[in-house]
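hi! just following up on the protien thing from before. the input was this:
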Amino acid sequence: MKGLLRWFEEYFVPFAAKVGSQKHLVAIRDGFIAIMPLIIAGSFAVLINVFPIEAWTKFLDTTVGGYIRSTNGNIWTGSFMIMSYLIAFTIPYAFAKNKGANELATGILGFATFIILMPGMGEGLGWGLPNAWAGTSSLFVAIFNGLFVAELFTRLFGNDKLIIKLPEGVPPAVARSFAALLPSLITVVAVSVIKLIWVEAFNTPNIMEFVMNTIQRPLIGMANTLPAAIAVAFFNHFLWFFGLHGSNILEPLMQSLYLPALEANAAGTGAFIVTKPFFDAFVYMGGSGTTIALLGAIFVASKRRKDLRDIAKLGLAPGLFNINEPVIFGLPIVLSPVFFIPFIITPVILTIVAYVTTAIGIVPLTTVMVPWTTPPVLGGYLATGGSIMGGLLSIVNLAIAFVIYLPFVFIAEKIDNVQ
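and the predicted 3d structure came back as:
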Protein backbone atom coordinates (compact mmCIF):
# COMPACT_ATOMS: atom_id res chain seq x y z
CA MET A 1 0.00 0.00 0.00
CA LYS A 2 2.79 2.41 0.90
CA GLY A 3 4.56 1.66 -2.36
CA LEU A 4 1.41 2.36 -4.35
CA LEU A 5 0.82 5.62 -2.50
CA ARG A 6 4.43 6.64 -3.08
CA TRP A 7 4.02 5.96 -6.82
CA PHE A 8 0.85 8.08 -7.01
CA GLU A 9 2.51 10.89 -5.06
CA GLU A 10 5.50 10.88 -7.38
CA TYR A 11 3.75 10.61 -10.74
CA PHE A 12 0.00 11.14 -10.50
CA VAL A 13 -0.22 14.06 -8.06
CA PRO A 14 2.10 16.41 -10.02
CA PHE A 15 0.20 15.63 -13.23
CA ALA A 16 -3.20 16.22 -11.63
CA ALA A 17 -1.98 19.45 -10.01
CA LYS A 18 -0.72 20.65 -13.39
CA VAL A 19 -4.10 19.90 -14.97
CA GLY A 20 -5.88 21.72 -12.15
CA SER A 21 -3.81 24.86 -12.70
CA GLN A 22 -3.98 24.80 -16.51
CA LYS A 23 -4.80 28.37 -17.56
CA HIS A 24 -7.67 27.57 -19.94
CA LEU A 25 -9.41 25.28 -17.46
CA VAL A 26 -8.95 27.84 -14.70
CA ALA A 27 -10.52 30.50 -16.94
CA ILE A 28 -13.54 28.28 -17.61
CA ARG A 29 -13.93 27.56 -13.90
CA ASP A 30 -13.61 31.20 -12.88
CA GLY A 31 -15.91 32.32 -15.68
CA PHE A 32 -18.70 30.05 -14.51
CA ILE A 33 -18.13 30.93 -10.86
CA ALA A 34 -18.59 34.62 -11.75
CA ILE A 35 -22.14 34.02 -13.02
CA MET A 36 -23.14 31.55 -10.32
CA PRO A 37 -25.08 34.12 -8.22
CA LEU A 38 -27.25 34.88 -11.24
CA ILE A 39 -27.79 31.20 -12.00
CA ILE A 40 -28.83 30.50 -8.42
CA ALA A 41 -31.19 33.50 -8.51
CA GLY A 42 -32.72 32.20 -11.74
CA SER A 43 -33.13 28.72 -10.27
CA PHE A 44 -34.95 29.99 -7.20
CA ALA A 45 -37.16 32.15 -9.41
CA VAL A 46 -38.23 29.00 -11.24
CA LEU A 47 -38.69 27.15 -7.95
CA ILE A 48 -41.05 29.84 -6.69
CA ASN A 49 -43.08 29.70 -9.89
CA VAL A 50 -43.44 25.91 -9.90
CA PHE A 51 -43.45 25.16 -6.16
CA PRO A 52 -45.62 22.01 -5.82
CA ILE A 53 -48.26 23.28 -3.38
CA GLU A 54 -51.75 23.63 -4.78
CA ALA A 55 -52.63 26.70 -2.72
CA TRP A 56 -49.48 28.46 -3.89
CA THR A 57 -50.16 27.56 -7.52
CA LYS A 58 -53.66 29.00 -7.26
CA PHE A 59 -52.27 32.16 -5.66
CA LEU A 60 -49.88 32.63 -8.59
CA ASP A 61 -52.91 32.56 -10.90
CA THR A 62 -54.40 35.60 -9.15
CA THR A 63 -53.64 39.22 -10.01
CA VAL A 64 -51.06 39.69 -7.25
CA GLY A 65 -49.62 36.24 -7.81
CA GLY A 66 -49.39 36.99 -11.52
CA TYR A 67 -47.01 39.86 -10.79
CA ILE A 68 -44.84 37.47 -8.76
CA ARG A 69 -44.84 34.98 -11.62
CA SER A 70 -43.90 37.70 -14.11
CA THR A 71 -41.14 39.01 -11.86
CA ASN A 72 -39.63 35.54 -11.57
CA GLY A 73 -39.90 35.13 -15.32
CA ASN A 74 -37.90 38.32 -15.74
CA ILE A 75 -35.24 36.97 -13.39
CA TRP A 76 -35.05 33.82 -15.52
CA THR A 77 -34.65 35.98 -18.63
CA GLY A 78 -31.74 37.82 -17.02
CA SER A 79 -29.94 34.66 -15.89
CA PHE A 80 -30.42 31.28 -17.58
CA MET A 81 -31.79 32.72 -20.82
CA ILE A 82 -28.63 34.78 -21.48
CA MET A 83 -26.08 32.37 -20.01
CA SER A 84 -24.00 32.14 -23.20
CA TYR A 85 -23.83 35.93 -23.45
CA LEU A 86 -22.53 36.06 -19.89
CA ILE A 87 -19.99 33.28 -20.40
CA ALA A 88 -18.81 34.88 -23.64
CA PHE A 89 -17.63 37.79 -21.48
CA THR A 90 -16.60 36.20 -18.17
CA ILE A 91 -14.30 33.45 -19.49
CA PRO A 92 -12.03 35.71 -21.56
CA TYR A 93 -12.18 38.27 -18.73
CA ALA A 94 -11.00 35.63 -16.23
CA PHE A 95 -8.30 34.40 -18.63
CA ALA A 96 -6.88 37.91 -19.09
CA LYS A 97 -7.09 38.67 -15.38
CA ASN A 98 -5.08 35.57 -14.52
CA LYS A 99 -2.44 36.63 -17.08
CA GLY A 100 -2.34 40.23 -15.90
CA ALA A 101 -3.57 41.56 -19.26
CA ASN A 102 -6.35 44.04 -20.08
CA GLU A 103 -9.24 41.99 -18.70
CA LEU A 104 -12.04 44.43 -19.56
CA ALA A 105 -11.00 44.75 -23.19
CA THR A 106 -10.61 40.98 -23.44
CA GLY A 107 -14.07 40.37 -21.99
CA ILE A 108 -15.67 42.90 -24.33
CA LEU A 109 -13.93 41.27 -27.30
CA GLY A 110 -15.18 37.87 -26.20
CA PHE A 111 -18.76 39.14 -26.18
CA ALA A 112 -18.41 41.08 -29.46
CA THR A 113 -16.89 38.18 -31.38
CA PHE A 114 -19.51 35.81 -29.98
CA ILE A 115 -22.15 38.09 -31.53
CA ILE A 116 -20.21 37.92 -34.81
CA LEU A 117 -20.46 34.13 -34.78
CA MET A 118 -24.20 34.12 -34.14
CA PRO A 119 -26.68 33.72 -37.02
CA GLY A 120 -28.06 37.15 -37.74
CA MET A 121 -29.37 39.43 -40.44
CA GLY A 122 -30.24 37.81 -43.73
CA GLU A 123 -30.64 34.40 -42.08
CA GLY A 124 -34.33 34.61 -41.27
CA LEU A 125 -33.85 35.93 -37.74
CA GLY A 126 -34.45 39.66 -38.25
CA TRP A 127 -32.37 42.55 -36.98
CA GLY A 128 -32.23 41.76 -33.30
CA LEU A 129 -29.99 39.38 -31.40
CA PRO A 130 -31.32 35.82 -31.69
CA ASN A 131 -32.40 34.95 -28.14
CA ALA A 132 -32.80 31.32 -29.20
CA TRP A 133 -29.00 31.04 -29.01
CA ALA A 134 -28.44 33.21 -25.95
CA GLY A 135 -28.95 30.41 -23.42
CA THR A 136 -27.14 27.13 -22.93
CA SER A 137 -27.67 25.92 -26.50
CA SER A 138 -24.60 27.87 -27.69
CA LEU A 139 -22.57 27.45 -24.51
CA PHE A 140 -19.76 25.48 -26.15
CA VAL A 141 -19.32 28.13 -28.84
CA ALA A 142 -19.13 30.81 -26.13
CA ILE A 143 -16.47 28.77 -24.28
CA PHE A 144 -14.32 27.91 -27.30
CA ASN A 145 -14.57 31.39 -28.79
CA GLY A 146 -13.84 33.02 -25.44
CA LEU A 147 -10.66 30.99 -24.96
CA PHE A 148 -9.50 31.58 -28.55
CA VAL A 149 -10.11 35.33 -28.38
CA ALA A 150 -8.48 35.62 -24.97
CA GLU A 151 -5.41 33.68 -26.07
CA LEU A 152 -5.01 35.68 -29.29
CA PHE A 153 -5.72 39.11 -27.84
CA THR A 154 -3.50 38.75 -24.75
CA ARG A 155 -0.61 37.63 -26.95
CA LEU A 156 -1.10 40.56 -29.33
CA PHE A 157 -1.61 42.99 -26.47
CA GLY A 158 1.81 42.08 -25.13
CA ASN A 159 3.50 42.97 -28.43
CA ASP A 160 5.10 46.45 -28.22
CA LYS A 161 4.96 46.84 -32.01
CA LEU A 162 1.14 46.83 -31.91
CA ILE A 163 0.82 49.49 -29.20
CA ILE A 164 -0.20 52.99 -30.26
CA LYS A 165 1.65 55.24 -27.86
CA LEU A 166 0.09 58.58 -26.95
CA PRO A 167 1.67 61.65 -25.32
CA GLU A 168 2.24 61.59 -21.58
CA GLY A 169 -0.54 64.06 -20.84
CA VAL A 170 -3.23 61.68 -22.12
CA PRO A 171 -5.34 60.10 -19.31
CA PRO A 172 -4.25 56.53 -18.52
CA ALA A 173 -7.69 55.10 -19.40
CA VAL A 174 -7.50 56.63 -22.88
CA ALA A 175 -3.93 55.45 -23.40
CA ARG A 176 -4.86 51.94 -22.32
CA SER A 177 -7.80 51.94 -24.71
CA PHE A 178 -5.63 52.98 -27.66
CA ALA A 179 -3.03 50.38 -26.69
CA ALA A 180 -5.72 47.75 -27.25
CA LEU A 181 -6.84 49.18 -30.61
CA LEU A 182 -4.70 47.18 -33.05
CA PRO A 183 -4.85 43.89 -31.08
CA SER A 184 -8.64 44.29 -30.90
CA LEU A 185 -8.90 44.97 -34.62
CA ILE A 186 -6.79 41.94 -35.52
CA THR A 187 -8.82 39.71 -33.16
CA VAL A 188 -12.17 40.83 -34.55
CA VAL A 189 -10.99 40.36 -38.13
CA ALA A 190 -9.63 36.89 -37.28
CA VAL A 191 -12.97 35.71 -35.86
CA SER A 192 -14.86 37.22 -38.81
CA VAL A 193 -12.62 35.36 -41.26
CA ILE A 194 -13.02 32.12 -39.29
CA LYS A 195 -16.80 32.46 -39.51
CA LEU A 196 -16.61 33.06 -43.26
CA ILE A 197 -14.38 30.01 -43.79
CA TRP A 198 -16.55 27.88 -41.49
CA VAL A 199 -19.77 28.77 -43.29
CA GLU A 200 -18.23 28.06 -46.68
CA ALA A 201 -16.49 24.84 -45.63
CA PHE A 202 -19.43 23.25 -43.79
CA ASN A 203 -22.16 24.95 -45.82
CA THR A 204 -23.99 25.99 -42.66
CA PRO A 205 -24.82 29.60 -41.74
CA ASN A 206 -25.64 28.63 -38.15
CA ILE A 207 -22.43 27.78 -36.33
CA MET A 208 -24.27 27.50 -33.00
CA GLU A 209 -26.62 24.81 -34.28
CA PHE A 210 -23.78 22.90 -35.94
CA VAL A 211 -21.65 22.79 -32.76
CA MET A 212 -24.65 21.95 -30.60
CA ASN A 213 -25.67 19.00 -32.75
CA THR A 214 -22.19 17.61 -33.43
CA ILE A 215 -20.35 18.32 -30.16
CA GLN A 216 -22.38 19.76 -27.30
CA ARG A 217 -25.48 17.57 -27.36
CA PRO A 218 -23.57 14.24 -27.76
CA LEU A 219 -21.17 15.14 -24.94
CA ILE A 220 -23.99 16.13 -22.59
CA GLY A 221 -25.74 12.87 -23.42
CA MET A 222 -22.60 10.84 -22.69
CA ALA A 223 -22.03 12.72 -19.42
CA ASN A 224 -25.56 11.87 -18.30
CA THR A 225 -25.00 8.13 -18.11
CA LEU A 226 -24.46 6.18 -14.91
CA PRO A 227 -20.85 5.21 -15.80
CA ALA A 228 -20.00 8.87 -16.41
CA ALA A 229 -21.57 9.89 -13.08
CA ILE A 230 -19.61 7.17 -11.28
CA ALA A 231 -16.40 8.33 -12.97
CA VAL A 232 -16.99 11.92 -11.80
CA ALA A 233 -17.65 10.79 -8.23
CA PHE A 234 -14.61 8.50 -8.22
CA PHE A 235 -12.05 10.92 -9.67
CA ASN A 236 -13.24 13.83 -7.54
CA HIS A 237 -12.51 11.88 -4.38
CA PHE A 238 -9.43 10.15 -5.71
CA LEU A 239 -7.91 13.59 -6.25
CA TRP A 240 -9.01 14.75 -2.80
CA PHE A 241 -7.32 11.73 -1.21
CA PHE A 242 -3.98 13.05 -2.44
CA GLY A 243 -4.68 16.55 -1.13
CA LEU A 244 -5.79 18.01 -4.47
CA HIS A 245 -9.04 20.00 -4.68
CA GLY A 246 -10.99 17.52 -6.80
CA SER A 247 -14.07 19.71 -6.98
CA ASN A 248 -12.13 22.65 -8.41
CA ILE A 249 -10.20 20.49 -10.88
CA LEU A 250 -13.42 18.97 -12.25
CA GLU A 251 -15.39 22.23 -12.09
CA PRO A 252 -14.97 23.12 -15.81
CA LEU A 253 -16.43 19.71 -16.73
CA MET A 254 -19.23 20.01 -14.20
CA GLN A 255 -20.27 23.45 -15.38
CA SER A 256 -19.95 23.04 -19.14
CA LEU A 257 -21.72 19.66 -19.34
CA TYR A 258 -24.09 19.55 -16.38
CA LEU A 259 -25.29 23.16 -16.24
CA PRO A 260 -27.03 22.92 -19.66
CA ALA A 261 -28.65 19.69 -18.46
CA LEU A 262 -30.02 21.48 -15.40
CA GLU A 263 -31.31 24.35 -17.55
CA ALA A 264 -33.11 21.90 -19.82
CA ASN A 265 -34.72 20.20 -16.81
CA ALA A 266 -35.84 23.53 -15.37
CA ALA A 267 -37.30 24.63 -18.70
CA GLY A 268 -39.10 21.31 -19.13
CA THR A 269 -37.24 20.54 -22.36
CA GLY A 270 -34.97 17.83 -20.97
CA ALA A 271 -34.99 14.82 -18.69
CA PHE A 272 -31.40 14.65 -17.47
CA ILE A 273 -30.73 12.71 -14.29
CA VAL A 274 -27.17 13.89 -13.68
CA THR A 275 -26.69 17.60 -13.06
CA LYS A 276 -24.45 19.64 -10.79
CA PRO A 277 -27.06 19.85 -7.98
CA PHE A 278 -27.52 16.08 -8.34
CA PHE A 279 -24.03 15.66 -6.86
CA ASP A 280 -24.32 18.52 -4.38
CA ALA A 281 -27.68 17.37 -2.99
CA PHE A 282 -27.25 13.58 -2.93
CA VAL A 283 -23.51 12.80 -2.96
CA TYR A 284 -21.43 15.67 -1.58
CA MET A 285 -23.42 16.09 1.63
CA GLY A 286 -21.24 17.61 4.32
CA GLY A 287 -18.62 18.11 1.62
CA SER A 288 -16.79 15.68 -0.64
CA GLY A 289 -16.99 12.11 0.63
CA THR A 290 -20.24 12.77 2.52
CA THR A 291 -17.99 13.26 5.53
CA ILE A 292 -20.82 14.50 7.72
CA ALA A 293 -21.81 10.82 7.93
CA LEU A 294 -18.24 10.06 8.99
CA LEU A 295 -18.58 12.61 11.80
CA GLY A 296 -21.76 10.88 12.92
CA ALA A 297 -19.97 7.53 12.91
CA ILE A 298 -17.17 9.00 15.03
CA PHE A 299 -19.63 10.40 17.58
CA VAL A 300 -21.27 6.97 17.85
CA ALA A 301 -18.31 4.61 17.69
CA SER A 302 -15.21 6.50 18.84
CA LYS A 303 -14.64 6.08 22.58
CA ARG A 304 -10.85 5.83 22.94
CA ARG A 305 -9.52 8.24 20.29
CA LYS A 306 -9.98 11.72 21.75
CA ASP A 307 -8.28 13.24 18.69
CA LEU A 308 -10.97 11.79 16.39
CA ARG A 309 -13.76 13.18 18.56
CA ASP A 310 -12.08 16.60 18.76
CA ILE A 311 -11.78 16.82 14.98
CA ALA A 312 -15.39 15.67 14.63
CA LYS A 313 -16.57 18.41 16.99
CA LEU A 314 -14.48 20.97 15.12
CA GLY A 315 -15.77 19.84 11.73
CA LEU A 316 -19.47 19.53 12.60
CA ALA A 317 -20.50 23.19 12.23
CA PRO A 318 -18.80 23.79 8.85
CA GLY A 319 -19.86 20.29 7.76
CA LEU A 320 -23.52 21.28 8.09
CA PHE A 321 -22.79 23.75 5.28
CA ASN A 322 -20.77 21.25 3.21
CA ILE A 323 -17.36 22.63 4.19
CA ASN A 324 -15.12 19.77 5.24
CA GLU A 325 -11.49 20.81 4.83
CA PRO A 326 -11.02 20.56 8.64
CA VAL A 327 -11.96 16.88 8.40
CA ILE A 328 -10.11 16.05 5.19
CA PHE A 329 -6.85 17.62 6.36
CA GLY A 330 -7.31 17.44 10.13
CA LEU A 331 -8.47 13.87 10.68
CA PRO A 332 -6.79 13.36 8.23
CA ILE A 333 -8.37 11.60 5.27
CA VAL A 334 -5.59 12.67 2.92
CA LEU A 335 -3.24 9.71 2.40
CA SER A 336 -4.92 7.72 5.17
CA PRO A 337 -4.92 3.97 4.41
CA VAL A 338 -7.79 3.51 6.91
CA PHE A 339 -10.22 6.00 5.40
CA PHE A 340 -9.19 5.60 1.77
CA ILE A 341 -11.71 2.85 1.00
CA PRO A 342 -14.83 4.44 2.53
CA PHE A 343 -13.92 7.89 1.25
CA ILE A 344 -13.76 6.54 -2.32
CA ILE A 345 -16.58 3.98 -2.36
CA THR A 346 -19.16 6.00 -0.40
CA PRO A 347 -19.74 8.66 -3.09
CA VAL A 348 -19.74 5.99 -5.80
CA ILE A 349 -22.46 3.98 -4.04
CA LEU A 350 -24.49 7.11 -3.28
CA THR A 351 -24.25 8.14 -6.92
CA ILE A 352 -25.63 4.76 -7.99
CA VAL A 353 -28.48 4.93 -5.46
CA ALA A 354 -29.41 8.48 -6.46
CA TYR A 355 -29.22 7.69 -10.16
CA VAL A 356 -31.35 4.54 -9.96
CA THR A 357 -34.04 6.06 -7.72
CA THR A 358 -34.29 9.03 -10.08
CA ALA A 359 -34.28 6.86 -13.21
CA ILE A 360 -37.20 4.71 -12.01
CA GLY A 361 -39.19 7.79 -11.02
CA ILE A 362 -39.11 7.56 -7.23
CA VAL A 363 -37.27 10.89 -6.98
CA PRO A 364 -37.94 13.84 -9.34
CA LEU A 365 -35.24 15.29 -11.57
CA THR A 366 -33.12 18.08 -10.16
CA THR A 367 -34.32 21.41 -11.55
CA VAL A 368 -32.92 24.04 -9.17
CA MET A 369 -29.33 25.21 -8.73
CA VAL A 370 -29.06 25.50 -4.97
CA PRO A 371 -25.96 27.03 -3.34
CA TRP A 372 -23.42 24.31 -2.60
CA THR A 373 -23.42 25.45 1.05
CA THR A 374 -27.09 24.48 1.47
CA PRO A 375 -27.33 22.00 4.40
CA PRO A 376 -27.90 18.30 3.60
CA VAL A 377 -31.51 17.13 3.19
CA LEU A 378 -32.67 20.71 2.63
CA GLY A 379 -30.50 20.71 -0.49
CA GLY A 380 -32.17 17.56 -1.79
CA TYR A 381 -35.62 19.02 -1.12
CA LEU A 382 -34.89 22.30 -2.91
CA ALA A 383 -32.89 20.84 -5.81
CA THR A 384 -35.84 18.65 -6.82
CA GLY A 385 -38.22 21.59 -6.89
CA GLY A 386 -39.54 21.19 -3.37
CA SER A 387 -40.07 17.43 -3.46
CA ILE A 388 -40.26 15.48 -0.20
CA MET A 389 -38.76 12.53 -2.04
CA GLY A 390 -35.63 14.56 -2.77
CA GLY A 391 -35.18 15.21 0.95
CA LEU A 392 -35.86 11.54 1.75
CA LEU A 393 -33.23 10.41 -0.75
CA SER A 394 -30.70 12.64 1.01
CA ILE A 395 -31.61 11.04 4.34
CA VAL A 396 -31.31 7.53 2.89
CA ASN A 397 -27.92 8.32 1.37
CA LEU A 398 -26.71 9.77 4.67
CA ALA A 399 -27.74 6.55 6.41
CA ILE A 400 -25.92 4.45 3.79
CA ALA A 401 -22.79 6.58 4.18
CA PHE A 402 -22.97 6.23 7.97
CA VAL A 403 -23.12 2.42 7.70
CA ILE A 404 -20.15 2.38 5.30
CA TYR A 405 -17.97 4.60 7.50
CA LEU A 406 -18.84 2.94 10.82
CA PRO A 407 -16.60 -0.19 10.60
CA PHE A 408 -13.64 1.94 9.51
CA VAL A 409 -14.07 4.14 12.56
CA PHE A 410 -13.88 0.96 14.67
CA ILE A 411 -10.65 0.10 12.87
CA ALA A 412 -9.24 3.59 13.48
CA GLU A 413 -10.11 3.16 17.17
CA LYS A 414 -7.72 0.22 17.42
CA ILE A 415 -4.67 2.07 16.11
CA ASP A 416 -2.93 5.14 17.45
CA ASN A 417 -2.58 6.97 14.16
CA VAL A 418 -4.94 6.77 11.17
CA GLN A 419 -2.05 7.68 8.94
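The chain has two domains: 23-218, 224-413.
The longest helix spans residues 23-50.
cheers
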